[in-house]
Structures are given as C-alpha cells and as structure tokens.
Design brief:
The chain is of the alpha/beta class and 258 residues long. The chain folds into two domains: 178 residues, Rossmann fold; 64 residues. It has ten helices and nine strands. The strands form two sheets. Strands 1-3-2-4-5-8-9 form a seven-stranded mixed beta sheet, with helices on both faces. Strands 6-7 form a two-stranded antiparallel sheet.
Length: 258
C-alpha cells in the first residue's frame, strides 16, 4: 500500500520513522518530528492504512500494517532506520523490528507492550461516537464537537479524534478515518506478539505512570525479546505520554535517539 507521509529534515540524514496510534494521524507527531529533525534526522511520519490521507482497506491487522512499513522503507530506499511507535504504532514497530532486524538500528516504543490486551470497550465507544455523527445535518466543526461531547467525556480525546474531521466539499464534513474497516477488525488490534526472536540493539520503552498498557510485571516479557530494553516511566502521564508531557518525552527520546 502506498502510504501518505510527511517528511522533515534533510534526506540522506539518519532516517527516523514515527508511527502514530489507533485513531491518530501523522499530524499528531509533526511538532516532535520537526524538532527532532533539527538534530540531524531525516524524519518520515506516515499515515497508517485506514488513517489520515492513506488508502482505506478492509484488510486491517498487524501483518498488513507491518507490510506497509516494509514497503515504505523499500520505496524510500532507507537503511539502518530508527523507529518510533506509539500504541498501535508501537506494536507495528516492534513486530517489524523483530521480523526485519537488518533494517532497524534503534527502536523507541511509547506505551505499548507485547502482551494481548483483550477487548477494550473504550475504543469501541469512540468508534460508535464518531459513527453517530450525521454529516447530512451538521454544518460546522463546532456542531460535531458538541455532539461528540455527549458521548466522549474527555476533552483531550475529543480534540484528538477531531483531527480526523475534514471538509469533504464546500458544504459537507466527513471523517478521513475508515471507521467501518477499523470497527470490523478492532479485535485484531489487541493481539499479542509471541515469538522467541531476540533484538539486541538499543531499545527504549517509555510508559505513562497512569497507564496500564505497560505494567512492572510486563518488564521481563519485554526484555525476553528486547535484550537491551530500557524502560522509563513518566509519572502522572496516561497512554498519550508524548502529548501530556511533551518536554519530558522529548528529552528522553532525543537523549536516546541522538
């Protein structure tokens, strides 16, 4: 699949690919991407399939997402890539790294482990909320946000998913994200990574102290596959670590990547 991507920095510098999470888009990482590009990186931030400007598909699982990343790296003729991935993007980055070790020199995973997570009703409730919007009747972004507020309590999450809203034409709003395709395959987003493959190059996991995606009891499992993994907690941060503690996250990430 030919993914849309944003690119910052100078081509030929150390390539750094950043993968967003479920319901996200490349734009979520532009501020970080531009800043880290100034440190001498060639930063590529794709929209993953069914998200943002990238194509839609009924095939939505980690095998497909990992293949998309491989195709992007081949297309751009990149070598010795540094990978950063948040949430779903973190699981894509981990799977790709374990399966294609010659392509990856460093891996940074943001609040995602290898374990299976089971059904998470929160994600389904977000899809239901977005699908409830009738774009035949709403005429402004403000109307959409007012309607979402009735079903999504968190303002931060509302603003996050509102990034997917766009003007389809001069009078009609719509979602860029492929809600139907994601909804049909949502269960596959919580699958575990189960392999005996070992990655021994530098790896950093950054977890939110208020998040349950990586718990202390998960550390041994992580290090079973990522032998040199460092695991750092940003206290008080939830699953969206990089958004809630941007400066602390940047200092950790840049210290590892540079």
């Amino acid at each position: 699949m030919d993914l849309f991507y944003r690119r910052y920095g100078i081509e030929g510098n150390q390539p750094l690919i950043i993968l967003h999470g479920l319901f996200g888009i490349s734009d979520n990482w532009v501020t970080f991407g531009r800043r880290i590009a100034d440190e001498g990186f060639d930063v590529i931030i794709p929209d993953q399939r069914n998200h943002g400007h990238s194509p839609h598909s009924d095939n939505f699982n980690y095998l497909a997402l990992t293949d998309d990343l491989y195709d992007l790296i081949e297309k751009l003729e990149l070598t010795n890539v540094y990978l950063v991935g948040h949430s779903m993007g973190g699981k894509v980055a981990m799977r790709f790294t374990l399966e294609n070790q010659l392509h990856v020199s460093k891996l940074l995973v943001v609040d995602m482990g290898l374990k299976a997570y089971g059904a998470r009703p929160h994600h389904k409730s977000i899809i239901d909320a977005l699908q409830s919007i009738d774009f035949k009747t709403v005429r402004s972004r403000g109307e959409v946000e007012t309607l979402l507020a009735q079903r999504i309590e968190s303002e931060r999450i509302r603003q996050f998913v509102m990034k997917n809203l766009y003007w389809k034409d001069k009078t009609t709003l719509d979602w860029r994200i492929n809600l139907d395709g994601i909804a049909r395959n949502l269960g596959e987003m919580f699958d575990a990574i189960e392999t005996s493959i070992l990655f021994s190059k530098p790896t950093l996991f950054v977890r939110g102290g208020a998040s349950d995606y990586i718990l202390p009891e998960d550390y041994a499992t992580i290090r079973a596959n990522f032998h040199r993994a460092e695991i750092f907690t940003i206290e008080g941060a939830s699953h969206w670590v990089h958004a809630e503690a941007p400066e602390q996250f940047y200092q950790l990430a840049s210290g590892f990547l540079i």
